[in-house]
Amino acid sequence: MVEVDSSEILARFIFSIRMYRADNSIRHTAFIPNPKNSETSVFRISDISDDEIWEIGDSVGVIREKPILGRADITAAVVMSKDLKIIPEEPPERHANIIGWSNDLSKQKMIALELASEAQLHLK
Asked: I need a surface site. Which of 4, 63, 74, 108 has the fewest CB within 10 A?
């Protein structure tokens, strides 16, 4: 698998209205790592069409048994600037995990707030 380049765009798919606000800003909860494995699941979306991105999101939604509401797009460079790593982990195709989160929940929240402020919301 090819390493994630800092110029790549990553999508964090959103399945809960609690992950964004009415003003279309992204809440930090969109980026908080899964407490079971301390990873945040993302997809590498550079060089594919919007339709292809939504198809991936729809397929993830089928697995989660939830309709996709949107996505938070962020550059890998922003994630990497927070001393986090992005590790490709397929299948599914284009999947990666953000790893390297602190075990300190307040530090996780601080970094997630910074990521959310840099990400761009796209609603389906």
From this structure: 63
In order along its 124 residues, the chain shows pLDDT tens digits of 689 999 999 999 999 999 999 999 999 999 999 999 999 999 999 999 999 999 999 999 999 999 999 999 999 999 999 999 999 999 899 999 999 999 999 999 999 999 999 999 999 9
Please report whether residue 119 resides in a domain: yes
Contact call for residues 96 and 87 (beta carbons, < 8 A): yes
d(CA 101, CA 113) in angstroms, rounded, equals 13
**Has residue 47 been placed in a domain?**
yes
DSSP 82: T
Per-residue tokens: 108: 């996780």
- Cα pseudo-dihedral 116, 91, 38, 85, rounded to 10: -60
Q: Where are the alpha helices (DSSP H) in 1-124?
A: 50-64, 76-80, 105-118
Question: Within its chain, how far is the Cα of 27 from the centroid?
Answer: 12
- Domain-located, residue 42: yes
Per the structure, how many domains does the chain have? 1
